[in-house]
């Protein structure tokens, strides 16, 4: 879909802070948050239509999705309609995806897809953050043992030289790095 707006894709390991960064982009840069679809159950405090569109396996099958992945046994997917919603309001979009989804967006949208890959210095802090977030121990255990969790700890080869890599150890530093990236991208067209 050709227009002069971007979709900022926040990707990286589970617990690395993707949702936190997406919320920051929504609040500070008035971006439109694309709500994706999943068959996993809501975490404490998560709301349908706000954090995700929560689906059953059969309701997910009926959707027209731009891309769809399996992550830790559950299905996730995002639609072109979700992207168009923000762009039709004249806004840039922000979406949270796993690295497989980020690669698909890069392939489909090229430079219109701005990819931010989050990582942390000490991988042990990821599980700590999930615990502090209130995730069930069984969910954390399953996540840490999934092949997708291990895959997303490192920047995939297909995104090398494409994604902006941000180390989210200290939130204050992260915000500064995100500000630099967003201003650099938005200054290209404005
Ligand atoms: N720089 C940081 N320092 C400490 N805690 C952080 C930092 N950034 C985010 N957090 C916290 O870590 C937890 C995980 O963050 P968040 O939910 O944004 O991660 P995520 O990458 O979206 O995770 P998931 O993929 O599992 O949904 C949250 O409780 C969040 O408040
Ligand atoms: N490729 C896609 N990845 C997605 C989508 N929605 C979320 N995600 C990613 O899945 C994992 C697991 O999410 P969680 O909320 O259960 O921790 C995480 O990396 C998300 O970024 C999507 O539509 N497509």
Automatic annotation (TrEMBL):
Q: Which one of the record's GO molecular function terms can you name?
A: GMP kinase activity
Question: What keywords were assigned to this record?
Answer: Kinase, Transferase
Q: What is its EC number?
A: 2.7.4.8
The enzyme's first-digit EC class, named in words, is transferase
Keyword Membrane in the entry? The reply is no
Chain coiled-coil ranges: none
Annotated Gene Ontology cellular component terms: cytosol
Give every Guanylate kinase-like domain span: 5-183
The catalysed reaction is:
GMP + ATP = GDP + ADP
The family this protein is said to belong to: Belongs to the guanylate kinase family.
Biological role stated in the UniProt entry = Essential for recycling GMP and indirectly, cGMP.
Q: What is the protein name given in its UniProt record?
A: Guanylate kinase
> What organism does the UniProt record list as the source?
Limosilactobacillus reuteri MM4-1A
């Amino acid at each position: 879909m050709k227009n002069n707006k971007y979709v900022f894709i926040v990707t990286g390991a589970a617990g690395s802070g993707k949702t936190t960064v997406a919320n920051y982009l929504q609040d500070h840069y008035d971006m439109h948050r694309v709500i994706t679809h999943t068959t996993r159950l809501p975490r404490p405090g998560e709301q349908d239509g706000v954090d995700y569109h929560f689906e059953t396996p059969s309701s997910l099958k009926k959707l027209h999705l731009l891309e769809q992945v399996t992550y830790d046994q559950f299905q996730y997917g995002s639609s072109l309609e979700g992207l168009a919603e923000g762009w039709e309001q004249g806004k840039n979009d922000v979406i949270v995806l796993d690295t497989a989804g980020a690669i698909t967006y890069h392939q489909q949208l090229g430079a219109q897809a701005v990819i931010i890959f989050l990582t942390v210095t000490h991988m042990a802090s990821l599980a700590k953050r999930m615990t502090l977030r209130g995730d069930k121990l069984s969910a954390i255990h399953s996540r840490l043992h999934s092949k997708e969790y291990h895959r997303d700890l490192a920047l995939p080869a297909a995104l090398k030289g494409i994604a902006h890599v941000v180390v989210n150890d200290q939130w204050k530093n992260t915000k500064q790095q995100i500000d630099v990236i967003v201003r650099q991208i938005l200054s290209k067209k404005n």
